[in-house]
From TrEMBL:
<dbReference type="InterPro" id="IPR040097">
    <property type="entry name" value="FAAL/FAAC"/>
</dbReference>
<dbReference type="Pfam" id="PF23024">
    <property type="entry name" value="AMP-dom_DIP2-like"/>
</dbReference>
<dbReference type="GO" id="GO:0016874">
    <property type="term" value="F:ligase activity"/>
</dbReference>
<dbReference type="InterPro" id="IPR020845">
    <property type="entry name" value="AMP-binding_CS"/>
</dbReference>
<protein>
    <submittedName>
        <fullName>Acyl-CoA synthetase (AMP-forming)/AMP-acid ligase II</fullName>
    </submittedName>
</protein>
<dbReference type="Pfam" id="PF00501">
    <property type="entry name" value="AMP-binding"/>
</dbReference>
<comment type="similarity">
    <text>Belongs to the ATP-dependent AMP-binding enzyme family.</text>
</comment>
<keyword id="KW-0436">Ligase</keyword>
<dbReference type="InterPro" id="IPR045851">
    <property type="entry name" value="AMP-bd_C_sf"/>
</dbReference>
<feature type="domain" description="AMP-dependent synthetase/ligase">
    <location>
        <begin position="17"/>
        <end position="417"/>
    </location>
</feature>
<keyword id="KW-0443">Lipid metabolism</keyword>
<dbReference type="InterPro" id="IPR042099">
    <property type="entry name" value="ANL_N_sf"/>
</dbReference>
<feature type="domain" description="AMP-binding enzyme C-terminal">
    <location>
        <begin position="461"/>
        <end position="576"/>
    </location>
</feature>
<keyword id="KW-0276">Fatty acid metabolism</keyword>
<dbReference type="InterPro" id="IPR000873">
    <property type="entry name" value="AMP-dep_synth/lig_dom"/>
</dbReference>
<dbReference type="InterPro" id="IPR025110">
    <property type="entry name" value="AMP-bd_C"/>
</dbReference>
C-alpha cells in the first residue's frame, strides 16, 4: 500500500514535509566518515526545518521559478540547499565545485554551465564563495553573480511554514550531462518527472519505510542524487551517505556500512563491485554480514558478467544473495531509471562477436571462443516501454537485431534547457508507422531477446572509465587545443577493452601542411603533450595515441566523425597510421 505521505503529493518537498509532521524523530539522513563513523545526522523534522529555512532565504531574494546554481562539496550543505530549492519552487542546478588545485582546468565546464543556465544566484559554502571572489577579477563570469553562503546556522530568515505549491510540469532541477565542454546540456527534470521516477524505483525494487540504504555515489549526478539520496526521502527510509573519496581509498568501507546499518538497498557502477572483490581479504571478509542486502543494483557504465560472478563468488559466503544483484539501465534524460525490474538476478547471453559487428545478435554457447557475453539490463514495465529502432529509417527492429534503444514513460524529462531543436529530435521521436506515441532516443545501442534488453554500444559514444562519464568530443577538443598539428575535427576518442578494463584510445590526423618549410613534427614530444593535457583535464591515462594520415578518420557524408567505425578500424589495425605511441 502506498504511504499516505505520498498520496496526492505534487512534489518531493510536500512528501518530506508530511513525513516530518507524522514521523518527526525518525532518522532520515546520516553522514558517515571512515566508513561507519556517524558524523552528522538528521531526523525528518530537522531536515524539513533546514529546507524551509533555505527556502525562506531563496524567497527573500525573489527566486521562485528562477535558477540557483549549487556549488558544494558532497555533504550536508548540498543536501539542505537542494531540498531548499524544491521547497521554494526554485530550479536547482547541481554542479561540481571547481578544484582549487586545478582551477584553470575545472573552471571551463562550470563557466559553460553558468553561460547556459544563467543562474540568478549561486548557493555555496563560505569557503567556495570566498574562493570565487578571489578569482572574480580574472573570471568576470563569477564576479557578476550573486553568491549566497548557506553554511551559517542563522541565515537571518524565518522558515517557511510549508513548501511552495508545485505543478507537475514545473521544473524541479537541471541535470547537466556533459563533461568538460563549452556547450553542456541541461536536462529539464520536472517535479512530475522526479516523482514518477522515484515511484518507478520504489515499485520495481520494492522499497518502503522498512528499507535502508547507503551510498558513496556523488550527489551531483543523477544516480547518486535520485536513487542514492532522494529515494529515501520519498519512500521514508534512512539514508547513509559517505564520500566518494572515502570509498575509493577503502572500497570495503561500503560493505562495512552495509553490515553495520543492516542496509537493504545500495548500488553503484561495475568498477565499484570490482574494487570490492580486489580488496577482499580473509580478515576483512570475516567481519562482513551482507544478508540484509536485498537490492544491489549495478549501472552507470557497462556491466560485466565476469565482475558480477566474481562478486557473488567472493561475498555469497558472507550472506550476499545472488537474487539481490541486478544490472540497471538509466540516463539523466529519464530522470534516472529507465525500464527494468529487479528479481531475476544477473541474466547473461553469449552472442557471436562477428555477427554483432553486423548488428545481429546470434546466440552461442557460453565459453565459445567466438562469443562475447552480454548482461541483460532491463525489460518493459507497466507504464514504460522499450523499443529497438533503426536510427536512420526509424523503423522498429525485431528481436535479435541491434539498433538504437528508444524508451517512453512518465519520468522522461522535458528536454534540454535552451536547446529546442535538439530536444525535439531527442525527446519527441516517432517510430515509422506508429505515429501516435512520442519516444526518447537514448543514443544507446542494443537489442531485445525474450523481452530482455542487452546493451551493445555507448550512449552517444559516451566513454565511461572508472565510473566517470567522458564525452569523446571533449577529449578530441583537448587534443586539438594541446597540439596545433592535429587537424581540427579530424580525431576520434573511444574506449577499448584491455584485460577486462576500459582504456582510452585517441586517433588523430596530422596536418602536414603545418610542417611545410619548418621542422618535422617530434612525434614523441607531441604524444607526451597530449597525454599530459588529457591527464590534467580528465585524470585519465591514455592507453594509446595513434597519429593518422590526412583523410583517414571515418566520417559520415555530412562530415560527422564515425567513432564506432574508427574504433573497429583501430581494433582491426586498418587505420592509415603515421606512427603510434603505446602506453
Amino acid at each position: 500500500m502506498v504511504s499516505d505521505c505520498i498520496s496526492g503529493a505534487t512534489s518531493l518537498a510536500h512528501i518530506l514535509h508530511r513525513r516530518a509532521g507524522r514521523h518527526p524523530e525518525r532518522r532520515a539522513l546520516t553522514f558517515l566518515v571512515r566508513g561507519t563513523e556517524q558524523h552528522k545526522a538528521y531526523s525528518f523534522a530537522a531536515l524539513d526545518q533546514r529546507a524551509r529555512t533555505i527556502a525562506a532565504l531563496l524567497k527573500a531574494h525573489g527566486m521562485e521559478g528562477e535558477r540557483a546554481l549549487l556549488l558544494y562539496p558532497q555533504g550536508a550543505e548540498y543536501v539542505e540547499s537542494f531540498l531548499g530549492c524544491l521547497y521554494a519552487g526554485t530550479v536547482a542546478v547541481p554542479a561540481y565545485p571547481p578544484d582549487p588545485t586545478r582551477l584553470e582546468r575545472t573552471l571551463g565546464r562550470l563557466l559553460g554551465i553558468i553561460a547556459d543556465c544563467r543562474p540568478k544566484v549561486v548557493l555555496a559554502t563560505k569557503e567556495i564563495r570566498d574562493l570565487a571572489a578571489a578569482f572574480a577579477a580574472q573570471v568576470p563570469g563569477l564576479g557578476e553573480l550573486k553568491w549566497l553562503a548557506t553554511d551559517d546556522e542563522d541565515l537571518g530568515v524565518v522558515p517557511l511554514a510549508s513548501p511552495a505549491d508545485a505543478r507537475s510540469e514545473q521544473l524541479a532541477f537541471l541535470q547537466y550531462t556533459s563533461g568538460s565542454t563549452s556547450s553542456p546540456k541541461g536536462v529539464m527534470v520536472s517535479h512530475g518527472n522526479l516523482l514518477a521516477n522515484l515511484a518507478h524505483i520504489r515499485g520495481s525494487v520494492e522499497l518502503g519505510e522498512d528499507s535502508c540504504s547507503v551510498t558513496w555515489l556523488p550527489s551531483f549526478h543523477d544516480m547518486g542524487l535520485v536513487d542514492g539520496l532522494l529515494e529515501g526521502f520519498y519512500s521514508g527510509y534512512p539514508v547513509y551517505l559517505m564520500s566518494p573519496a572515502d570509498f575509493l581509498k577503502h572500497p570495503l568501507r561500503w560493505l562495512q556500512a552495509v553490515t553495520a546499518f543492516r542496509v537493504t538497498h545500495s548500488g553503484g557502477p561495475n568498477f565499484g563491485y570490482e574494487l570490492c572483490v580486489r580488496k577482499a581479504t580473509p580478515e576483512a571478509l570475516s567481519a562482513l554480514d551482507l544478508s540484509s542486502w536485498r537490492s544491489a543494483y549495478c549501472g552507470a557504465e557497462p556491466v560485466r558478467a565476469g565482475t558480477m560472478r566474481r562478486f557473488l563468488e567472493t561475498f555469497s559466503p558472507r550472506g550476499f544473495s545472488a537474487s539481490a544483484l541486478f544490472p540497471v539501465f538509466g540516463l539523466a534524460e529519464t530522470t534516472l531509471k529507465a525500464p527494468g525490474r529487479q528479481g531475476r538476478g544477473v541474466v547473461t547471453l553469449s552472442v557471436d562477436k562477428k555477427a554483432l559487428e553486423a548488428d545481429q545478435a546470434v546466440p552461442l554457447p557460453t565459453g565459445d571462443a567466438q562469443a562475447t557475453e552480454l548482461v541483460s539490463c532491463g525489460e518493459s514495465e507497466e507504464g514504460y516501454g522499450l523499443a529497438i529502432v533503426e536510427p536512420e529509417s526509424r523503423e522498429r527492429l525485431p528481436d535479435g537485431r541491434v539498433g538504437e534503444i528508444w524508451v517512453y514513460g512518465p519520468s522522461v524529462a522535458q528536454g534540454y534547457w535552451r536547446k529546442p531543436e535538439l530536444s525535439e529530435e531527442t525527446f519527441h521521436a516517432r517510430i515509422r508507422g506508429e505515429d501516435s506515441r512520442e519516444w526518447l532516443r537514448t543514443g544507446d545501442l542494443g537489442f531485445l531477446r525474450d523481452g530482455l534488453l542487452y546493451i551493445t554500444g555507448r550512449r552517444k559514444d559516451l566513454i565511461i572509465i572508472g565510473g566517470r562519464n567522458h564525452y569523446p568530443q571533449d577529449i578530441e577538443w583537448t587534443v586539438e587545443a594541446a597540439l596545433p598539428e592535429v587537424r581540427p575535427g579530424c580525431g576520434a576518442a573511444f574506449s577499448v577493452d584491455v584485460d577486462g578494463e576500459e582504456r582510452l584510445v585517441v586517433v588523430a590526423e596530422v596536418d602536414t601542411r603545418r610542417q611545410q618549410g619548418g621542422e618535422s613534427l617530434d612525434l614523441q614530444a607531441a604524444a607526451a603533450t597530449v597525454r599530459q593535457a588529457i591527464n590534467e583535464a580528465y585524470q585519465l591515462r591514455l592507453h594509446e595515441l595513434v597519429f593518422l594520415k590526412p583523410g583517414s578518420v571515418p566520417k559520415t557524408s555530412s562530415g560527422k566523425i564515425q567513432r564506432q567505425a574508427a574504433r573497429r578500424a583501430y581494433l582491426e589495425r586498418g587505420l592509415q597510421r603515421v606512427t603510434e605511441e603505446a602506453a
